[in-house]
């Protein structure tokens, strides 16, 4: 990945052959099986993300891998074990060398594509529902972009936790009517209209938390739908617009607005204890089939440009993933 964001992506991305690095004593060589294309990857390529690496760089934040070789001091992993690289950047590679401490073992028999999508979006959904406000079963939460991968995980976790959730999507085809739950089709442009619809659904019961992936006017629409003292958590910038909340909501209704970035949450020493439980809990829920993210299409890494164009399209019905060369042996 190189050069300025003003040029089209296909002029900025090259597939490069790299020489194999030697392995240090505490390192592990992993073969990537499947990798997700996240909105974060696209933001980063357009120099709009919270962390911007020096150019040129290998993109990719999330995926699942197989252990190929271990350094001489690594005794608890074997070739063939399946692992999640966490906090490892540059996973859109066939192989890479990482420190043992960055790898979390996962079961070798579980579906590869679901494992590839476990690190970022389910963890975000989990932390948003478990650690932003204390929500009691039966209380109401509202989210927008409810058909996104994060939105799907929030739906699944809310059902699991007994939370009442209002799912807002921008187009009728995005409503998962087979699933039940409360759905509203709303483009976020008219806060009063969304508030009316929310009141009809909740019959006036308080909505304590709003989860906003969009920003711009959509933030105001969620804020208006919250009850006094409600909290709006802005965790995505899908509209690319500045988040607008009117002073009336902040001053007279005491709506609290907060930004959230999973990377910062994990870095905060106050969250150290809670952070240790996130992935064990998510893996348990994935094994119990509580968490499942829809996939639209899988591309080999060699077709990354087509995959990127596809992932930037509106109206998808699931995630776009990439596969590395070791994928064939471990499906
Ligand atoms: N803060 C964090 O730590 C964190 C962590 C993970 C993800 N995120 C953020 O969470 C958001 C969702 O990520 P994802 O991977 O779940 O996304 P995804 O599966 O790729 O889905 C994208 C969703 O965004 C909707 N969308 C796109 N542009 C929109 C707009 N202008 N207005 C309304 N809806 C729009 C799409 O709706 P259609 O289907 O109608 O096209 C679709 O539902 C992203 O902003 C991502 O950066 C944040």
Describe this structure in words.
This protein is an alpha/beta fold and 331 residues long. It is built from eleven helices and 13 strands. It has helices at 9-12, 39-45, 112-116, 121-131, 149-161, 191-202, 217-225, 247-251, 262-267, 272-287, 304-311; strands at residues 27-36, 63-70, 82-85, 95-99, 103-106, 140-143, 164-169, 182-185, 207-212, 231-234, 256-259, 295-300, 319-323. The strands form two sheets. Strands 1, 2, 3, 4, 5, 12 and 13 form a seven-stranded mixed sheet that branches. Strand 10 (231-234), helix 8 (247-251) and strand 11 form a beta-alpha-beta unit. It is globular, with a radius of gyration of 21 Å. The structure holds NADP nicotinamide-adenine-dinucleotide phosphate.
Task: Present the secondary structure layout.
Layout (H helix, E strand, L loop, with lengths): L8 H4 L14 E10 L2 H7 L17 E8 L11 E4 L9 E5 L3 E4 L5 H5 L4 H11 L8 E4 L5 H13 L2 E6 L12 E4 L5 H12 L4 E6 L4 H9 L5 E4 L12 H5 L4 E4 L2 H6 L4 H16 L7 E6 L3 H8 L7 E5 L8
Parallel strand pairs: 6-7, 6-9, 7-8, 9-10, 10-11, 12-13
Antiparallel strand pairs: 1-2, 1-4, 1-13, 2-3, 3-5
* Count of discrete structural domains: 2
Query: How far from one another are the termini?
Result: 28 Å
The dominant shape is globular
Radius of gyration: 21 Å
Q: Going by CATH, what is the homologous superfamily of the largest domain?
A: Medium-chain alcohol dehydrogenases, catalytic domain
Oligomeric organization of the protein chains: single chain
Heteromolecules bound: NADP nicotinamide-adenine-dinucleotide phosphate
Biggest sheet details: 7 strands, mixed
Portion of residues within helices: 25-40%
Taking all residues together, what is the mean pLDDT?
94
């Amino acid at each position: 990945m190189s050069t300025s964001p003003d040029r089209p992506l296909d002029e900025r991305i090259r597939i490069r052959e790299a020489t194999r690095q030697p392995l240090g004593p505490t390192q592990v060589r992993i073969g990537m099986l499947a990798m997700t294309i996240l909105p974060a990857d696209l933001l980063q390529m357009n120099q709009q993300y919270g962390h911007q690496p020096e150019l040129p760089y290998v993109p990719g934040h999330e995926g699942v891998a197989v252990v190929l070789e271990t350094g001489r001091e690594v005794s608890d992993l074997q070739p063939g074990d399946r692992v999640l690289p966490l906090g490892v950047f540059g996973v859109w590679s066939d192989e890479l060398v990482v420190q043992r401490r960055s790898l979390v073992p996962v079961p070798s028999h579980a579906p590869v594509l679901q494992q590839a999508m476990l690190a970022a979006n389910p963890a975000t959904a989990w932390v948003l529902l478990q650690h932003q406000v204390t929500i009691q079963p039966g209380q109401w939460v509202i989210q927008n972009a409810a058909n996104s991968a994060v939105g799907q995980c929030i739906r699944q976790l809310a059902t699991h936790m007994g939370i009442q959730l209002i799912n807002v999507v921008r187009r009728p085809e995005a409503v998962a009517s087979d699933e039940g739950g409360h759905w509203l089709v709303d483009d976020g442009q008219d806060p009063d209209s969304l508030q009316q619809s929310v009141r009809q659904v909740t019959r006036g019961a308080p909505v304590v938390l709003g989860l906003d992936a969009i920003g711009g006017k959509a933030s105001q629409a969620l804020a208006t739908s919250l009850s006094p003292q409600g909290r709006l958590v802005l965790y995505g910038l899908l509209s690319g617009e500045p988040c607008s909340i009117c002073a009336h909501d902040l001053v007279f209704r005491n709506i609290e607005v907060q930004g959230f970035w999973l990377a910062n949450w994990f870095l905060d020493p106050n969250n150290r204890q809670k952070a240790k439980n996130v992935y064990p809990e998510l893996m348990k829920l994935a094994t119990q089939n509580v968490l499942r993210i829809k996939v639209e299409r899988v591309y080999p890494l060699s077709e990354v440009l087509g995959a990127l164009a596809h992932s930037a399209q509106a109206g998808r019905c699931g995630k776009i993933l990439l596969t590395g060369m070791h994928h064939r042996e471990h499906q």
